[in-house]
Description:
Blueprint: H1 2-16, E1 20-23, E2 32-33, E3 38-39, E4 41-42, E5 45-46, E6 51-52, H2 55-62, E7 76-77, E8 82-87, E9 100-106, E10 111-113, H3 123-129, E11 134-135, H4 136-140, E12 150-156, E13 166-174, E14 177-183
Parallel strand pairs: 1-10, 3-6
Antiparallel strand pairs: 1-2, 4-5, 7-8, 8-9, 9-14, 11-12, 12-13, 13-14
Amino acid sequence: MFTAALAATAALFSAQTPPLVIEVPDSGQIVRVGDFRPRQALGDLDFPGGVAATRRNAIKVFGRPDGKDPRGCPNKWKAIGLRMVAANFGGGSSCAASTRIQTLTVTGAQWQTERGLKIGDSLDRVRELYPELISYREWLQSNDKTVRYDWALVFEPSEFNGPPGVDRLSAHIRGRKVVSLKVSPYAAGD
């Protein structure tokens, strides 16, 4: 009896919890990842809006990470299905608070894009919501097996990266289902 009541309360709570929204419109401008509004970069250029895409600023928004990445840095929030890749291409520590964020990857069911794409959605749903999507293999003109399940959904036009530009929102799709979504501020100094 107690277990059923607890399960019902948990289901009610999760039904009332608003989704965490990833907003990356067609312009490629990263508006937000939940309440985090990272300023995106490309080489030496910074684009207007948002805060510096650093570990410190992500932690201010998402709270203390509850998991570590393969390098031992606390860069995961298991409770919300979020992990970040932070890097310093200048040679500094990738675990420092000031280290810049390359990517934010979400796997939690509570995440969705502003268009309504969610983890678990079908490839057909992705194509419906993001008709301009392109597979990384096609985009990179490569048979690299490491990108065979990755699809770019939104690009930011760039004279540095050529058409179609810089990938800002992408999806990892396996078995025709969205497994994760990735937002790429590329702030580490590429």
